[in-house]
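Page 37, continued from 36.
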């Protein structure tokens, strides 16, 4: 069946006529109705990068789109086949690319443990970082992030781009450029794409990443074929760093130990697991979750900051020290 997002962009009835293309009109309508939880960027004439802000919308992923006397309810989790996709206009409407970044759904520890038990799968450690997808086009290999088509134009807190940091890891670990590395991989694994998490102290947000001696590393998340999205064998995984795996007891024990703030930096983001639907679900440690609410755009930022200060643990997060000084004055 056709992905829900593709159906919306091709067939949803528009409220009025316009000189803009129907696809662009529907993207604007979608972004506005979802309070910009669904976003897009115009890459070129007739080509768009469409992505979602799941973390911001996790408390209420549904929204309504009103046309004339009718109101239609949509759900971000059902509407989007992944967190980030490329949309290209065609003669019969539009099409989605095949190298999409998997979306992540946050769940609570009990749900996570239930999925592990039901599927018999081991959980992987979740690394805080930037998701990168490498895919091949007529112009060679491309590297992009969730919201930027060219990783060399994507930055966080480092003066180096995410593309530059990725190249540094390839040169250090393989002694060659990323393009040469992927050219060699494509001989054995043709028509494929690769998804990584770039972990770097130069782009540190909450986690300290002390386990990476060189400061920057890439962790392989997916290695799949474009046509079927089937995962490749373990041989390709052995070429890259992959996440350590844990059973249900180890996951629950770690979550229990890190449920409250410890007198140290936050070491772990949590765990991830692919469920029966193929979605990447994630459970966050308590320490990471509470630290993440200190982001100024979060509604409960001041309340959480004050709570941490009263516990005497707030000042332990060096990145937040300036904010800590302001809280201490109140």
């Amino acid at each position: 069946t056709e992905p829900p997002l593709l159906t919306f962009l091709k067939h949803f009835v528009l409220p009025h006529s316009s000189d803009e293309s129907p696809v662009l009109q529907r993207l604007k309508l979608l972004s506005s109705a979802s309070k910009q939880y669904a976003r897009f960027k115009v890459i070129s004439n007739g080509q768009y990068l469409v992505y979602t802000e799941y973390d911001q919308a996790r408390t209420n992923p549904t929204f309504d789109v009103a046309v004339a006397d009718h109101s239609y309810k949509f759900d971000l989790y059902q509407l989007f086949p992944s967190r980030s996709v490329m949309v290209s206009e065609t003669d019969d409407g539009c099409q989605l690319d095949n190298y999409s970044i998997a979306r992540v759904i946050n769940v609570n520890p009990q749900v996570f443990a239930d999925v592990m038990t039901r599927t018999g799968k081991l959980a992987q450690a979740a690394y805080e970082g930037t998701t990168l997808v490498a895919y091949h086009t007529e112009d060679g290999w491309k590297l992009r992030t969730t919201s930027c088509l060219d990783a060399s134009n994507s930055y966080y807190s480092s003066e180096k781009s995410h593309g530059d940091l990725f190249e540094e890891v390839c040169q250090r670990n393989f002694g060659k450029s990323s393009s040469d590395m992927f050219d060699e991989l494509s001989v054995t694994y043709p028509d494929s794409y690769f998804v990584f998490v770039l972990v770097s102290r130069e782009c540190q947000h909450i986690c300290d990443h002390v386990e990476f001696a060189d400061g920057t590393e890439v962790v392989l998340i997916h290695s799949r074929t474009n046509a079927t999205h089937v995962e490749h064998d373990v041989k390709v995984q052995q070429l890259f760093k992959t996440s350590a795996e844990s059973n249900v007891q180890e996951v629950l024990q770690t979550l229990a130990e890190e449920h409250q703030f410890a007198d140290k930096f936050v070491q772990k983001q949590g765990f991830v697991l692919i469920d029966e639907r193929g979605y990447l679900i994630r459970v966050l440690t308590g320490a990471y979750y509470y630290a993440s609410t200190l982001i100024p755009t979060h509604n409960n930022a001041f309340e959480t900051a004050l709570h941490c200060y009263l516990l005497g643990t707030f000042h332990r997060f060096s990145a937040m020290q300036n904010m800590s000084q302001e809280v201490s004055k109140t």
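Residues 47 and 88 are 4 Å apart (CA to CA). Flag for discussion at group meeting. The chain has a mean pLDDT of 76.
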